[in-house]
Design a protein that fits this description.
single chain, alpha/beta, eight-stranded parallel barrel, 10 helices
Length: 216
């Protein structure tokens, strides 16, 4: 059986960018998935408020693509966690800090990527087992806010910048301590072709690699 936590850690190490495919349909899921994975993305999120999201998640999870983790976003309840688990989703990505949801993800051996904004929320999420903290909406408060939040978190906490951050912002947020990013409409929006999504993904991956090399 696949060790989901280990698989996530490996995927995150390779490329800590989450492709947020909000609004994607089951018919689009495979070609867009292929495009972003070919570009080097290893973490894929389909928000539950997308059309037939669980069908799309199940389709992609069933492919068992090596080195790639599939998950659901906009997970709001413990019941949502159960539904995602049932179709094979591996990540549980939330927009907010809800301990009941985090606990459900941990019990189901899914990887919780938990949305938070304040230091209080970040600390609560960490105590309940969040592996990665999603600072959302990051662009509203600016890159320096990540530095402020990190100062009070346990050593080893990982922060992803989500919400309003684009290609040209990555360097500033990386310098402020972002361990990765989530990209939504910057990368995908309904109507954008798989080819165009792949081109954007390649630019984002290339920029992360450049910043990682420069910082390492």
């Amino acid at each position: 059986m696949k060790d989901i936590a280990q698989a996530f850690e490996q995927a995150f190490k390779v490329m800590p960018l989450i492709a947020v495919l909000r609004g994607i349909t089951p018919e689009e899921a495979d070609p867009v998935f292929d495009a972003v994975v070919e570009a080097g993305v290893t973490l894929i999120e389909i928000p539950l408020n997308s059309p037939d999201a669980l069908i799309s998640i199940g389709k992609l999870a069933a492919r068992r693509f090596p080195g790639v983790c599939i998950g659901a976003g906009t997970v709001l309840t413990a019941a949502d966690v159960e539904r995602v688990n049932a179709v094979g989703g591996e990540m549980i990505v939330t927009p907010n800090t809800e301990p009941v949801v985090i606990d459900a993800a941990v019990r189901a051996d899914r990887v919780p990527v938990i949305g938070c904004l304040t230091p209080t929320e970040a600390l609560v999420a960490s105590r309940h087992g969040a592996r990665v903290l999603k600072i959302f909406p990051a662009a509203r408060l600016g890159a320096a806010y990540l530095t402020d939040v990190r100062a009070v978190l346990p050593l080893g906490s990982r922060l992803l910048a989500f919400g309003g951050v684009g290609l040209n912002d990555m360097a500033e947020y990386r310098a402020a301590g972002a361990d990765g990013f989530g990209f939504g409409t910057t990368l995908y929006k309904p109507g954008r072709t798989a080819r165009d999504v792949g081109a954007v993904a390649r630019d984002l991956v290339a920029e992360w690699k450049r910043l990682d090399i420069a910082g390492g």
